[in-house]
Amino acid sequence: MATNFMAQQRAPRIPGEVGMWAFIISDLSVFSLYFITFLFERSQNREAFQTGSHALHLTMGVINTLVLLTSSLFVALAAQALRGGYGSVAQKYILAAIAGGLTFVINKPIEWIEKVHAGLGPHHDNFFQLYFMMTGLHLLHVVVGMVVLFYLWRLAGRVKSAPSERQLRFLENGANYWHLVDLIWLVLFALFYLVG
Amino acid sequence: MHEKNGIRPQAAVNTYSGAEFSGPGHDCGRRELQRVPAVPSPGSLQSQGAGTSMELRLTPLAHRICLSMGHVLTFIYLVGWLCARFLPIPGADWPAAKLATWLLENKTGYQLGCMLMLIAGGLLAPWGSALAIWTRKTEARFPVIYVSQITSLAASTALFVIIPIFWALAAFRATEIPVDITQMLYDAGWYLFLWVGPPFYIWVATLGLGIVLNPPEHQLFPRWIGFYCLASVLCWSMGLMQVFFRSGPTSYSGMLPTWIPLVEFFVWMEILTFYGFRAIRLQEAQCRAEVGEGLGVYAPHWDDPLVDSITDTPRSRN
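Predict the joint structure of the above. Result:
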C-alpha cells in the first residue's frame, strides 16, 4: 500500500494530456516562425520598426499584459480550488479570468482603432502589417480561450466534491491553453512594444 | 455475454502495444451497447445482421495504396512548385508587364509545374479517405463528424485542383493578351490557393475532433494527432489575411499566409501518413486475431481462383 503510494508520488505526471501539449508545441512552433519573420523584417528596416514601436501605446501594452497575467493566475487558482472539490469557488475564479480576457478583447480593438485613425493602419509599413496580423491571430486565440473558459465555468458548477479524472483532464487542458495564450502575448509584447 | 434489445454486442477489442482498439468494420454500430473484450465468431457476426463475412475483413493493400498517395502528393506537388519557379513567388506588387514577361520566359517549366500540382491535387481524395475511414467507426451509427469530414474533403479536393488551372491560364497567352488580364488570372490562382481554406479547415478540424471527441479505446490514432490537427487549422487560417496586402510578409508571396502554412501542411501530411500506416498495422493485428471463413486479412493472390460472373462463386479448377 505504502509502496503504491510512493510509486504514485514518484510517477511523472504532466498537467492535462499529451495531446494538449502537442497542440501547444505545434502552436508555439508556428508562432516562433512568425517571431523569426518579425526579426528578419526588422533587420531589413530597423528604423521603421523602431519608429513603429515608439508609436505604440506602451501603457496600454502593459495594462494588457497585467490583465492577461492576472487572468492566468485566476485560472491557476480555479484549478487548485477544483482539485480540492470547491466547485463554486472555482467558478468565481473562472469568472474573474473571463473578465480579464474580456478586458483584453475590448482593449485591443480600441488600440487598433486609435492607430488606424492616426494613419498607422496595417498598410502603413511592414511593422504595422505584422503588428495587426500577429496581434489579430493572438486575439483569435483569446476569443477561443474565452469559449474554453466558459466551458470550464460550466464544468466547475457541476463539481460538488472531488472532480473525476475526465473533469480534471478537461480543466487542466483548458488552463494550459489559457497559459499558452498568455505566453504568446508576453513575446508579442516584448517584440512589438519593447524590442521593435 | 450480455444482450440488449436482443442484439448481442460484437465489438472485438484486442490489446496491441498496450493500447485497446477494435476494428472499424467489426462493430457495425453496436459498440456503444457494451464493450466486450472478446473475439466474435463468424457465425455470431452474421446472426446479428452484420452482413456477409466478406464485409468484415480487412484489405490492407487498398488502404496502403490510398494512404501512400500522401507521399506521392507531397513529392509531385513540391516538384511542381519548383518547376513553376515559385521560389521566390512573384509577388502581388509586381507590375503586370513584368509578370507577363516572367511567365513567358519560364513558360514551359511553369506550365509543367502547374500540371504536376494539378495531378497532385487529385490525390488528396484517396489519401484523405484512407485517414477518414478510421474515424468512421468511432461515431457508430450516427457519424455526423465523419460525414462532415468526407464532404469537406470532397470540396477541398475539387478546389485544390482548380488552383493551378488559373495559374496555368495566366501563362497560356502571356504577352499575347493585355497584361492586366494575365495578372488577374495569376492573382485569381493565389486567391484560390489561400482563400479556399475554409473547407480544408473543416475537413482537418473534423478529422481532429473525430479522434479527440470519440472513445479513445477504439481509436487507431493517438489522441495527440487530433490536437495536432486542430493546431494546424489555426496555423493555416493566416492564409485568409493575404487579401489586405499587396506586399510584405502578409501578402500572398509572404511568410505568414503562404510559406509557413505550406511547410506546415506538408509536414502535417507526412506525419498523418506515418500514423495512418501504423493504424493499418494495428488493424491487421486485430484482423489476424480473428478466425473463420471470410474473416481476417485479405490480400489478393495469384493463386486465387477466378470468380464466375453469373453465379458469383469461385470457379472450380479443372
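The longest helix of chain A spans residues 126-158.
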